[in-house]
Design goal:
Keywords: Membrane, Transmembrane, Transmembrane helix. By secondary structure, the protein is mainly α. The protein has one domain. It is 56% helix and 1% strand. It is built from twelve helices and two strands; from the N terminus they run H-H-E-E-H-H-H-H-H-H-H-H-H-H.
């Protein structure tokens, strides 16, 4: 080794103290990433104890994702709700269709006048039989709990579904207007027809519900729908425009009004 080379190495090497105290290993940064597969079904439990749950719209990034197994608590709650709904369906069928104890005639003793009244009343509900509402709605609510995983599986929307989604605000406004007009008509309609005032009309409504099975069953349908509406809207609140989520979330507990607000405030920029 030449003298010049030795002198260069001696004068240009880093001091020993620098090597010992300053050559620290680089700090490791902790990177937290949320996998897209956890969004549709799972609850994310943060260190603060907050629990976030909900379903998102279908997106291409979740097409091949597999849901993680749900907790025992959620599964038990779902089974209890499902069992309660099937019990309610049994009570509904027995009390309103088969047993003779409710006002009016059961199905097996129904008269021709009642059938004619049933068909006539369907005109007021867009040709839907009033007695058959919750008879199908309760099983639907129970079955959708059993297929919670399947309903979150991304699927391509059909053309009919797209048309219905795009027309939802129009349907909501028309339905809300019809409900408002019907309420005003029941209270003040035909003032010159000798139908009496509001008190007289209320007395007639009470006596009608107490004597007709169809009217009595319709009160059951109203009560059940009051329970199901906030449930259904709450499960689909992510489809509402972000700026309207709070108002839709509060008004979903108000029958009819909550449904109208939900339909009008749907986010049509993305497929539901």
């Amino acid at each position: 080794m030449s003298t010049a080379t030795a002198s260069f190495l001696v004068h240009n090497r880093p001091p020993l103290a620098t090597l010992h105290f300053n050559s620290k290993p680089p700090r490791r940064r902790r990177v937290v990433a949320f996998s897209p597969r956890t969004w549709p079904f799972e609850r994310i439990v943060l260190r603060t104890g907050l629990v976030c749950g909900g379903a998102r719209r279908n997106s291409p990034t979740t097409a091949s994702a597999q849901p993680l197994p749900e907790g025992d608590g959620d599964g038990n709650l779902r089974r209890v709700l499902q069992f309660s709904l099937w019990v309610a369906e049994g009570i509904y069928i027995l009390w309103l269709f088969l047993l003779p104890y409710a006002p009016g005639d059961p199905v097996w003793a129904i008269s021709s006048d009642t059938i004619n009244s049933l068909v006539g009343l369907s005109l007021n509900f867009f040709f839907i039989l009033p007695l058959m509402n919750s008879a199908f709605l309760i099983p639907y609510m129970a079955i959708r709990l059993d297929s919670a995983d399947a309903q979150n599986t991304p699927t391509k929307s059909s053309q009919l579904a797209s048309v219905m989604t795009n027309g939802a605000p129009v349907v909501g406004l028309i339905g809300g207007a019809i409900c408002l007009i019907s309420t005003l008509w029941a209270l003040f309609g035909r003032p010159d027809g000798n139908f009496g005032g509001i008190a007289d009309r209320w007395d007639f409504l009470v006596s009608y519900i107490g004597s007709e099975r169809l009217a009595y069953a319709f009160i059951w349908d109203i009560c059940l729908y009051t329970i199901f509406q906030p449930w259904l809207i709450g499960d689909n609140i992510q489809n509402v425009q972000k700026s309207k989520v709070n108002i839709a979330n509060y008004l979903r507990f108000v029958p009819v009004v909550g449904l109208v607000v939900y339909l009008v405030c749907l986010n049509l920029d993305e497929e539901v």
